Fold:
Amino acid sequence: MKPVTNKGTYAAIVLAAFFWLASTQLAAQNNNCSAMLSLSIPNTEILSATVVDAFGPLPAHCWVVGVTHGESGSNVRFDVRLPDNWNKKLLFTTRQGFMGSLAPLFNAVIASGLFRNYATVSTDGGHQGVNILDASFGLDNRPAEIDFGYRGTHLAKIAAAAVMTGYYGSAPIHSYYDGCSSSGRYGVQSAEHYPGDFDGIIAGSPVVDMSGTITDAVYIEQAMLTAPLPASK
Structure:
């Protein structure tokens, strides 16, 4: 074979090889991610599996969304973000308030975890709400109350670890939880009800007395309604 001596031709060959390798890796990533749609986990359905491109310092990853059930009427949504260079650890968080939706990519725990190559997990707390102040899910819905109270994190963690095992071929070697306020309460409840779920828990400002906190908020609102502050103040 005649050696390539023209620098322009050589550069074109190298560039073509680079794009071929990149496209091959992307195709493999897409295939691995879409394969999660057929993953079988007890009492769980996988709803979507999407490759998310790298964004700023955050790596490209496979984003899997599913729903798992603790009993009839229990519907705990969860998502897992799976980076290529996984550090073999799981990092879990949730939104605050009454939750009602999955933690977004720009959530501080999710973003910092992905940056450090954790596989991240979140849950909606066992219900879907208009916003984090929407507590209507609890009306005559005991399974949702239990999932929001303590069970949702456990169910989501078990399902998420199964997704990681299916995607990477091995289970996480360590699992951690990091949350604040109502999310911190979820961490405390996990430690109390399922002490084997996490190797470490950061529970910042946990709302452990949810009933007392809500009652106090209602009292303050009623007081302000009775004697509202003037606009001058």
